[in-house]
Design the sequence.
């Protein structure tokens, strides 16, 4: 009996000993793995072990870096570039100082990038910047808005005439529905973008209205929105709502930021239904506003395609020394019907 | 695994303790080393983490030196400023040469690449500025200087941005490490606690393996001390000192048991011998007593008989003389033998005397014949063996029969044994009675008037004692009226 007890307790002791050993080994192993992992994690944070190198380095220069439109452009450019060994950066994104386009152009030239994609304008300064880039042997492609008289290699953008006609079409459609005698349309122009681009849009718009024989009932006005300094656009749009004795029946926006601002202001001043909005581009916000029928329609540009064309143009220029002067990017109209017909969220790829 | 266990179990206790001590120490040492290794590694990494920031700061400082010395030179045109410019320019170029120059999709590396190229442009520009200043081209160097200043500010921004981005990431890395340092503390505490418990268990296990056999041994030893020698063999678990003691103990128990058994056997033998001796004596005494009872005063009887014999001789009565001589010889036999062992010849002579006496008494009714192998006469037998058997044959065999009674004594050798047989043609014995006689249950009915008192039982027992079970005493009869044969078989001893 006694011996049996001793034997049993011994067996239990042995088992316990074995278990302890096992536990020790397990903790040991686990901690070893843990520390290896932690040290590697910390090292990875510092050294960024995984990266690819590229042959060419193109930069996109725009003032609206955070803007989803330009992010899409970058995405499209990166996709196109990835195949041909090109890395595309949204230039100035990582800097602590918010440089303007011209400064970024200078930096890009000094940093000896292989190609510049810039949202240009028709200013002399921009022209000068493009000239210097050309001098340094860096090809420049303008995107979305052009600097026609500069030494840029190519322009990738939309046909302003077609854009104007599309806007005109939308204006007429809405005006017909409303059946008002005097339908006031306010077109918000970008004060920064001097030159013919916006004028062409307005002219094409008016031509369309005339061709539909509605010039008597539809009056098109324009307002310059200061987009250059900070927060100026939002303030000037609010001013329109606060100061105007009589609000326009419809507001047409020619860029994404204005569209978002007008949409928010209309909601804030409780003018939904009273003021119709025809927007530009489609961000997440704009898309949901269309679904809620606050924005009537928006003209969408295939931003990814734009990015792709920019990279293609630069590649072609570097390869062949010449390139087509103009790349036309697809646009499409998006309204509540598009969503209804193609289901939730899948409307943005519908080309006209 | 079992083999190793076996091997360890067989080590001596001292070696076991040394091994146990070494094992626990090794575990502690190993764990400590591991912990220190980890701590060292982490602290080393902690030191490393901000090195990239330090480097960038140095780069920014040297860049400022370049700009300052250039400005100083433009202001004063001193050789000192010039030298300072070239020194810092040299240093700066060296620093930026370490930066990445490939285009990568890693933000930081891309910034490094941009800084590198911008710095190269910057140095080119400062070089041009200095050159223009030397050539006193005022308009040019002013223009270059302005451009360089602009680029300098861009570079500063870039360096600052890269530095802060790196700082952010380095801080994350630092946090990861410092949090793992805290874990390390806990892990080391846990591991040490477990090792402590493990070591205690190990010690308990090892000492248990030593004390357990001792306990078993002491338990069994206690039983032996109480006098119980029929204990189980204590199992031997190992060949260490305890194992040796246990084996010795087991062997001791076995040899004690054997020794006791041997003593017991020899004691029994001795007791048997003594018993036999005593019995022998007792039987002889019994026989002699019976004889003496029968012959109250043999000396007186002798003298009387001798006187009778002389008288018969004087009267020339030869037959009477022979008769009395025979009678005297018969009685003398019993008196003279003080020794128990006699030869067969003596015994036969006694039977002859007896038969002579009886024939005189019953006027020659008994026909006695002998078939004796002369070579066997020397064989020693206990005294008073044959006469009682012959007397038996006379009394119960041929006394009351109508036909002529015959008794035959034959002594023959059969291999290494000798057969002494007394055969009569008398009344015979029924088989049931025969059985009783054989087993010794039949009590001879009283003392027959003619008997000298020594019964068959007495004869049988004395033979038995004398020959030690090697003799056989056989009574054979084929039934009433068919005679009886008594046969004694004794071992033949060559002289």
Sequence:
């Amino acid at each position: 009996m006694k011996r049996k007890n001793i034997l049993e307790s011994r067996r239990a002791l042995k088992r316990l000993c074995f278990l302890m050993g096992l536990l020790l080994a397990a903790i040991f192993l686990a901690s070893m793995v843990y520390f290896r992992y932690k040290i590697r994690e910390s090292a990875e944070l510092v050294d960024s072990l995984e990266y690819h190198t590229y042959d060419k380095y193109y930069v996109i220069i725009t003032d609206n870096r955070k803007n989803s439109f330009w992010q899409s452009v970058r995405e499209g450019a990166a996709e196109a570039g990835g195949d041909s060994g090109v890395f595309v950066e949204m230039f100035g994104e990582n800097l602590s100082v918010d440089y303007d386009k011209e400064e970024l152009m200078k930096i890009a030239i000094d940093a000896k990038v292989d190609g510049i994609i810039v949202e240009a304008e028709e200013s002399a300064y921009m022209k000068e910047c493009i000239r210097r880039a050309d001098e340094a042997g860096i090809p420049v492609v303008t995107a979305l808005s052009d600097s026609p008289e500069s030494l840029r290699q190519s322009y990738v953008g939309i046909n302003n005439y077609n854009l104007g006609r599309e806007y005109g079409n939308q204006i007429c459609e809405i005006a017909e529905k409303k059946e008002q005698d005097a339908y006031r349309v306010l077109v918000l122009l970008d004060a920064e973008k001097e030159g013919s681009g916006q004028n062409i849009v307005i002219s094409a718009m008016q031509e369309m209205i005339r061709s539909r024989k509605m010039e008597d009932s539809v009056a098109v006005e324009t307002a310059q929105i200061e987009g250059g300094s900070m927060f100026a656009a939002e303030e000037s749009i609010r001013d329109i709502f606060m100061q105007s004795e009589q609000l326009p029946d419809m507001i047409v926006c020619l860029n994404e930021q204005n569209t978002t601002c007008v949409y928010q202001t209309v909601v804030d001043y409780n003018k939904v239904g009273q003021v119709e909005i025809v927007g530009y581009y489609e961000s997440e916000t704009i898309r949901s506003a269309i679904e809620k029928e606050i924005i009537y329609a928006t003209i969408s540009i295939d931003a990814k395609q734009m990015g792709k064309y920019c990279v293609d143009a630069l590649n072609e220029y570097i390869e062949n020394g010449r390139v087509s002067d103009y790349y036309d990017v697809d646009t499409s109209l998006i309204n509540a019907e598009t969503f209804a017909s193609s289901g939730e969220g899948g409307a943005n790829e519908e080309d006209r | 695994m079992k083999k190793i266990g076996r091997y360890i179990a067989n080590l001596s206790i001292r070696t076991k303790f040394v091994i146990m001590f070494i094992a626990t120490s090794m575990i502690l040492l190993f764990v400590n080393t591991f912990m220190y290794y980890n701590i060292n590694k982490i602290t080393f990494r902690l030191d490393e983490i901000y090195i990239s920031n330090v480097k960038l700061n140095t780069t920014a400082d040297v860049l400022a030196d370049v700009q300052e010395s250039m400005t100083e030179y433009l202001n004063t045109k001193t050789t000192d400023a010039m030298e300072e410019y070239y020194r810092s320019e040299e240093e700066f170029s060296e620093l930026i040469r370490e930066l990445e120059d490939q285009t990568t999709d890693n933000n930081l590396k891309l910034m490094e690449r941009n800084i590198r190229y911008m710095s190269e442009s910057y140095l080119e520009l400062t070089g041009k500025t200095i050159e223009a200043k030397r050539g006193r081209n005022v308009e040019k160097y002013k223009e270059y200087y302005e451009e360089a200043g602009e680029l300098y500010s861009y570079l500063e921004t870039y360096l600052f941005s890269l530095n802060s981005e790196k700082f952010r990431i380095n801080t994350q890395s630092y946090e990861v490490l410092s949090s793992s340092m805290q874990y390390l503390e806990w892990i080391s505490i846990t591991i040490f606690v477990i090792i402590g418990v493990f070591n205690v268990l190990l010690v308990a296990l090892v000492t248990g393996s030593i004390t357990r056999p001792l306990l078993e041994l002491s338990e069994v030893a206690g039983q032996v001390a109480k006098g119980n020698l029929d204990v189980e063999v204590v199992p031997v678990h190992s060949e260490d000192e305890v194992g040796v003691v246990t084996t010795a103990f087991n062997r001791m128990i076995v040899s004690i048991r054997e020794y006791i058994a041997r003593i017991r056997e020899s004691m029994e033998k001795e007791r048997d011998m003594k018993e036999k001796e005593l019995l022998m004596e007792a039987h002889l005494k019994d026989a002699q007593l019976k004889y003496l009872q029968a012959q109250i005063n043999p000396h007186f009887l002798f003298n009387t008989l001798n006187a009778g014999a002389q008288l018969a001789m004087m009267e020339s009565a030869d037959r009477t003389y022979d008769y009395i001589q025979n009678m005297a010889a018969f009685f003398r036999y019993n008196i003279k033998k003080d020794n128990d062992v006699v030869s067969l010849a003596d015994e036969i002579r006694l039977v002859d005397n007896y038969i002579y006496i009886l024939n005189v008494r019953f006027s020659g009714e008994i026909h006695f014949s002998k078939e004796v192998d002369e070579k066997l006469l020397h064989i020693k037998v206990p005294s008073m063996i044959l006469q009682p058997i012959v007397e038996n044959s006379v009394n119960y065999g041929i006394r009351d029969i109508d036909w002529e009674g015959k008794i035959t004594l034959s002594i023959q050798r059969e291999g290494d044994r000798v057969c002494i047989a007394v055969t009569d043609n008398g009344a015979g014995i029924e088989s049931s009675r025969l059985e009783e006689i054989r087993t010794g249950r039949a009590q001879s009915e009283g003392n027959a008037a003619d008997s000298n008192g020594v019964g068959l039982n007495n004869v049988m027992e004395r033979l038995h004692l004398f020959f030690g079970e090697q003799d056989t005493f056989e009574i054979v009869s084929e039934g009433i009226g068919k005679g009886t044969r008594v046969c004694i078989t004794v071992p033949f001893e060559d002289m």
In short: The domain at 337-491 of chain B is CATH 3.30.565.10 (Heat Shock Protein 90). The beta strands of chain B are 103-104, 341-343, 366-372, 380-382, 405-414, 417-424, 472-477, 484-491. Chain B has two domains: 2-214, 337-491. The two ends of chain B are 75 Å apart (CA to CA).
